[in-house]
């Protein structure tokens, strides 16, 4: 029941109308019996500082930050967790005792949630794409102790920068998607993760496409796990294709739920909600 005492948590981004976060977070807040609601607030670049400063002065208990603000929000925060600093991206904020923004990133924990019990230590992984999401994925794969991590991208400059970012942790192998050597890597990979938007259900991208085209996947073998960070549509064209080849497939829904659980814990100083509460709410909605 929303009353005059109800506080709120908001998702800030542009666009936000496609987000499933309000569905799962409101289910969790209801389960916990908290007098809180979760809303999505579209926010343009030029308004980010104004919006964040305004939210400090009203009954806002926390924020999720999504594209395109995950990096721009850094200079509006007074405390930033080591993982957010390392990833150069923030996705969760709360107000500290001095009414200033304290920031973290829950994407890495979200990403590794469905992989934790798959014994990937000393295995070979491939990351497709070199944008912001690829950073969280690479950090997650490092945490899972993979022996080799290769990144395949269309964009040489963002690929080079990404590899440089992880120089002090691991020697990443970077390839352009047109490189013939990619076929050898795909044949030998234990895990392939798609962080590109190819196949996403939006007007901008055709959602029947497969990252880098079907020919790129010709050497995929049935022992490889294929993980697509996209959760809408489910399954994506890539995951259908991979399942037909006999591969184990994972979509982005578990990551979405797991990072949401970690964000909620950050806002509520450690409260935990069972995974199924958020997951069931999304399954019902989708």
UniProtKB/TrEMBL annotation:
Span of the secretion signal? none
What pathway or pathways are given for this protein in its record?
Metabolic intermediate biosynthesis; chorismate biosynthesis; chorismate from D-erythrose 4-phosphate and phosphoenolpyruvate: step 4/7
Q: Which residues bind NADP(+)?
A: 129-133, 229, 252
GO MF terms listed in the record are:
NADP binding; shikimate 3-dehydrogenase (NADP+) activity
Q: Which GO terms describe its cellular component?
A: cytosol
Q: Name one GO biological process term.
A: aromatic amino acid family biosynthetic process
Q: Where is the Shikimate dehydrogenase substrate binding N-terminal domain?
A: 11-93
Where is the catalytic site? 70
> Which CDD domains does this entry report, sorted A to Z?
NAD_bind_Shikimate_DH (cd01065)
Residues binding shikimate are 19-21, 66, 91, 107, 231, 259
Q: Which UniProt keywords apply?
A: Amino-acid biosynthesis, Aromatic amino acid biosynthesis, NADP, Oxidoreductase
Question: What is the purpose of this protein?
Answer: Involved in the biosynthesis of the chorismate, which leads to the biosynthesis of aromatic amino acids. Catalyzes the reversible NADPH linked reduction of 3-dehydroshikimate (DHSA) to yield shikimate (SA).
Q: Which HAMAP family match?
A: Shikimate_DH_AroE (MF_00222)
Question: What family does the entry list?
Answer: Belongs to the shikimate dehydrogenase family.
PANTHER family for this protein: BIFUNCTIONAL 3-DEHYDROQUINATE DEHYDRATASE_SHIKIMATE DEHYDROGENASE, CHLOROPLASTIC, SHIKIMATE DEHYDROGENASE
Q: What is this protein called?
A: Shikimate dehydrogenase (NADP(+))
Taxonomy, top ranks, is:
Bacteria, Bacillati, Cyanobacteriota, Cyanophyceae, Synechococcales
Name the gene: aroE
